[in-house]
Amino acid sequence: MGGQVLVPLSICVSFWLILHPGLASGALSTNYYANVCPKVESIVREVVKTKINQTFVTIPATLRLFFHDCLVQGCDASIMIQSREDNTAEKDHPDNLSLAGDGYDTVIKAKAAVDEVPGCKNKVSCADILAMATRDVISLSGGPSYRVELGRLDGLVSTSSSVYGKIPKPTFNLDQLTYFFSSLGLNRMDMIALSAAHTVGFSHCDQFANRIYNFSRNRKVDPALSRKYSAELQSMCPIDVDPRIAVDMDPVSPRKFDNQYYKNLQVGKGLFSSDQVLYNDYRSRPFVNIWAGNSAAFERAFIVGMTKLGRIQVKTRGSKSGNIRQDCAVFNS
């Protein structure tokens, strides 16, 4: 895994080409609420800071909530809707059951704080609050801060059935990952940059048990894992352990948003096979090596990826498919 890697000039040039994305997409704008609720971003940030002080889980929970929302029906806070008695809302799909409640709670509390301000009540969407809160948990945990495009409306539909096939699996190979993200308008560079969201947070043992036990039915451990790391994982997740037991996704700096994710991949410490493949596949390895050694370059690429992610299938002003929810967890009556 050692040795110097020469990076093709085309890849280096592409980094420069992505550094200046447009400040707005369609009806989205970084100053959307300037004349309506000008202090909305500082209000949300204070709520996020308070939540983080209460529990670190706020950081990965909010970040993961944003991803799961945007990947299904676009960034419209449909993930926030509570089911009634039939458990058919988006959040009740099996792929969403592991989403920590602190992410939802952050958005709900931020929405309440915004609505308490004269002139702001029912003027800011839950989808935009989630987007702002996500930026804030990233920056408050050591990651980059960036201008968030705003102007999303909240979706009018939330169904469990809409989630099927919309969340990437931890077993995906590079072709599957590339195809999945390209279907959303994100390229391979975006995908590799956004994968670094795994630098914070945790995963349950059952999500990677196949890599440390009975790999391919004829091996005990996935050979892509470092021996030391696989032994550590086995000690934390014995074969008969409760699958709900969780371990840090980044074994080095689990509470800091940084480029350690890529350094881990270089030494066989990618928790999911979909993580480790980014280094093991020659087509994606150059990006891993660049960002492992250049934190600023990684942060620029991550901001571009997050901005593009936040534009997926947004409902904006004038759309009949969205509105501003009075309660983030309930459709307006």
In short:
By secondary structure, this protein is mostly helical. It has helices at residues 9-17, 40-54, 58-71, 101-115, 126-140, 174-182, 188-194, 209-212, 227-236, 260-266, 273-280, 285-293, 295-309, and strands at 154-155, 202-204, 246-248, 322-323. The strands form two sheets. A two-stranded antiparallel ribbon has the order 1-4. It has a two-stranded antiparallel ribbon with strand order 2-3.
Task: Give an account of the 3D structure.
- The protein is mainly alpha-helical and 333 residues long.
- It folds into two domains: 23-167 and 312-323, Peroxidase, domain 1; 174-307, Peroxidase, domain 2 (Orthogonal Bundle), CATH 1.10.420.10.
- 41% of the residues lie in helices and 3% in strands.
- The protein contains 13 helices and four strands.
- Strands 1-4 form a two-stranded antiparallel sheet. It has a two-stranded antiparallel sheet with strand order 2-3.
- Mean pLDDT is 91; it is low at 1-25.
- Its cofactor is Ca(2+); heme b.
Task: Identify the notable features of this structure and list them briefly.
single chain, 333 residues, mainly alpha, Peroxidase, domain 1, Peroxidase, domain 2, 2 domains, two-stranded antiparallel sheet, 13 helices, disordered N terminus
Low-confidence stretches: 1-25
Mean pLDDT: 91
Q: How would you describe the shape?
A: globular
Tell me the strand percentage band: under 5%
Main sheet attributes: strand count, strand direction, barrel closure: 2 strands, antiparallel
CATH topology term of the largest domain: Peroxidase, domain 1
The SSE order reads: HHHHHEHHEHHEHHHHE
Number of strands: 4
How many distinct helices? 13
Helix content: 40-55%
